[in-house]
Amino acid sequence: xxxxxxRRLVLWGPVVLxxxxxxxxSSESNPLPGLTSLVWDKALHTTEYAxxxxxLCRALRGEGLRWWRSVALxxxxxxxxxATDEWHQFFVPQRSADVADxxxxxxxxAAGSSLYRLIAEVIKL
Length: 125
What we know:
Elements lengths: L2 H24 L6 H4 L4 H22 L4 H24 L8 H25 L2
Helix pairs in contact: 1-3, 1-4, 3-4, 3-5, 4-5
């Protein structure tokens, strides 16, 4: 494996794994019932997509995109993935597609990519 392949794997591997994890839990009728019974649904969506967008922003920045493009593209990509996730849930028994869930995902994506920008400033990435 050459350096460029390894670098891309380090940048994009976490994004792909996180996306697969989202898909996995979206495929279940009642994922993590102990958690979902205790925490507000929209808070879970916001947190879930904050993490996804943070990883996206990290990968995009690692590819050399400027900050504003990395943050904006991370929000756009995470929002698009969230829309497909909601559509996917429409076909899962006992699940539904919800625009309010998607909106919480978008808020989370904006927060996560912005948080990565803030963290990078603090630790000088």
